[in-house]
Design goal:
Layout lengths: L7 E3 L6 H13 L4 E4 L16 H9 L6 E4 L2 E2 L5 H14 L4 E6 L4 H7 L6 H20 L2 E5 L4 E6 L12 E3 L4 H16 L1
Parallel strand pairs: 1-2, 2-3, 3-5, 4-5, 5-8
Antiparallel strand pairs: 6-7
């Protein structure tokens, strides 16, 4: 296998807890480098079926796995304030022994937002909110205190303790398409290379 080549798998959380744990342990034993779940309230391809919440499920699975990297592919920015996402990620980084990757996306599945009464912003606002969320999550995971004055989010000397185990922060996985979103990803990649 070429150096640097990695394999991951993303599972839907439509199985029972017991079967999900069994599958994730099997995938880890088979040698998958990373295991991911999704951030939806309902399964887009089958909205009427059962579906566990992604972040709480990930926390539980962090305690049930040993070596694979884990993450949510990708956290929907319209569902939670980015400071909460950073806190959840840092907590799961500790539970997993430093194995979490932080997946972030703008959000896309409109029917899910409608059924749960969650506002779905216009595309320009989705992009603007995503940019600010990425900046906030990045800063919180790197620093013990963050102040941020954005159009959508504001933080005033927000303390962030404990810091994640991974330094300078857990890796970010940014879900994006279209030129404006891809620019955000490219800028964050350049920032990562510089630090």
């Amino acid at each position: 296998m070429p150096a640097g080549l990695r394999f991951g798998i993303c599972t839907d959380q439509n199985m029972s807890w017991e079967l999900t744990v069994e599958r994730w342990r099997l995938f880890e034993d088979l040698g998958f480098d990373s295991l991911w779940d999704c951030d939806h309230y309902v399964q887009p391809s089958r909205p009427s079926g059962p579906y566990f919440e992604g972040w709480t499920l990930l926390a539980a699975l962090a305690a049930q796995t040993r070596k694979a990297r884990i993450g949510v592919l990708v956290s929907c920015n319209t569902f939670r304030h980015p400071a909460l996402v950073a806190k959840m990620a840092a907590t799961i980084d500790h539970i997993s022994g430093g194995r979490v990757d932080v997946g972030l996306g703008a959000g896309w599945f409109v029917p899910e937002h409608t059924m749960y009464g969650i506002e779905f912003p216009s595309p320009p606002e989705l992009v603007s909110r995503f940019r600010e969320a990425v900046e906030i999550v990045d800063s919180l995971l790197r620093n013990e205190s963050t102040t941020y004055a954005g159009q959508h989010y504001q933080l005033d000397e927000a303390l962030f303790r404990p810091q994640p185990l991974q330094r300078p922060r857990p890796p970010l996985t940014l879900g994006a398409h279209g030129p404006k979103m891809m620019r955000i990803v490219a800028e964050k990649q350049v920032d990562a290379v510089r630090s």
